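Exercise 3.2. Students should predict the tertiary structure of the chain below and write it as structure tokens, then compare their answer with the key that follows.

Predict this chain's 3D structure.
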Amino acid sequence: QVQLVESGGGLVQPGGSLRLSCAASGSIFSIYTMGWYRQAPGKEREFVAHISWSSSNTYVVDSVKGRFTISRDNANNTVYLQMNSLKPEDTAVYYCNAVVVTTTTTTPRNYWGQGTQVTVSS
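Answer key:
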């Protein structure tokens, strides 16, 4: 099994910054990608950003490009999302996602964190 533990959410004023962290642990053999999704009230969960574990290639959705940066710490199986110039429309529960091959599987599987609330409001 793989556990994803998120931290760093909270309440911030418009224009402010937050940094989310997500640490993966458990029976990890290899990580393909780690990333972030978000779900605002009344809306479907949407992709925000991900990073390839082997190449460090990143992809960020257009709505946050230039404001959010994703990075990783391979040694600690941790992914970060630096969020700057936050807007009220960024308010959502942010979920960490990892595509992982475990020590007991041969195919990569999706794992999800519990989510962390980000609220942007004055």
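Discussion points: The chain has no helices and eleven strands. The CA atoms of residues 27 and 94 lie 24 Å apart.
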